Amino acid sequence: MESSTINKRNITLDYFKIGLSILIIMIHCPFVSIYAPQNGSILDNIGYIVGWEISYGLTKIGVPLFFIINGYYLNITSREKTGKYLTKLVILYIVWTLLYIPWYYPYFKNDIKSLIITVTNGFFHLWYLVSLIGAVIMLYFLNRIKVNKIGLIILAIALFFIGYLIQKRDPYSAFEIMKYRNFLFWAFPFVTIGHLIKYVIYSKIKKFIPYILILGSIALMIEAYIYMEQQVTNNLYIVPLFLCPAIFIYILNNGKMGSYPKHNTVADMSIAIFFIHPMLILASLDLKINAYIDSPVMFFLFITITTLPLAYIIVRLNRVLKIFL
Q: Residues 171, 232: contact at Cβ < 8 Å?
């Protein structure tokens, strides 16, 4: 034990966040391609459907749940606390943007406009931090002008569906992605939901949660199947808007509580995995390691297995420098 300071935490949630980070890896290392196999056998088709449901169905709870968790633990009761949190996010963004320079700068060094857009919106997965910063600022000011809980949830749901409709026009265009994969239409709705979960009285909704989890899981698989038929991979899915809050509420109220030392490696690992795994993916592509791994599933396992020790190193480094997590 590195410190005598002990914190009570939801252990189940900490391990669950590691699982969510692995789902994020899976988003970037899908088991199957967007397009169905041509003239494949029955087994090929079944494998494709299963791979799609995992890669483009199950994984879609990852980002919304991380936003919800951020929103739940967000403290916007004062300018000082909000400012401190935003400062931490900005430092994280600067540090990780600098660390990813070797991968984005060579492509944009002769195109300053694209370089500025890339840095402003976040390279690869770093859009998440930019969106979280914007969502926190927006929620803080709405709280300052006393927008009530009903108003917040209506605004959150309305903005989400506006983003979903924008996405439908052209989900693959880089410019279109910036229009909907941002703080306004993705981060703010889920951060707000997470923030409002603090006011939910669990005893009043406890009996409904299992039904929401079961029906929501089935609905998510159906939604993913519909997109499979359309051969599109949307970022915004409708079902997580209702399923993910139920998942978080369930874990929050049924997870195992326990004591941790001041430095919580389990909790920190989920963040480190999120930040570091694209570096492994990009380095593997640069070194053409993927050419020697003939299975997408094996490539996912390779990235996951190599990410874990590097994530642990980041966790240990952060205890000294305190700028990585």
A: yes
DSSP string, 51-78: HHHHHTTGGGGHHHHHHHHHHHT---SS
pLDDT per position as a tens digit, 15-39: 999 999 999 999 999 999 988 888 7
Is residue 259 helix, strand or coil?
strand
Tokens found for residue 80: 């000082």
pTM above 0.85, yes or no: yes
Alpha-carbon gap, residue 9 to 256, rounded angstroms:
8
Alpha carbon of 99 to those of 17, 41, 104, 252: distances in Å? 23, 45, 10, 34
- Which tokens belong to 290? 């993927």
Helix and strand element counts for the chain (H, E): 15, 2
Task: Give the integer Cα–Cα distance in Å for 269 and 100.
Answer: 19
The CA distance from 47 to 45, in Å, is 5
| DSSP 8-state assignment for residue 208 | G
Distance in angstroms (rounded) separating the CA atoms of residues 145 and 184: 18
What is the spatial distance between Cα 79 and Cα 9, in angstroms, rounded to a whole number?
A: 26
284-318: pLDDT as tens digits: 999 999 889 989 999 999 999 999 999 999 999 99
**Cα–Cα nearest to 186, from 175, 174, 178:** 178
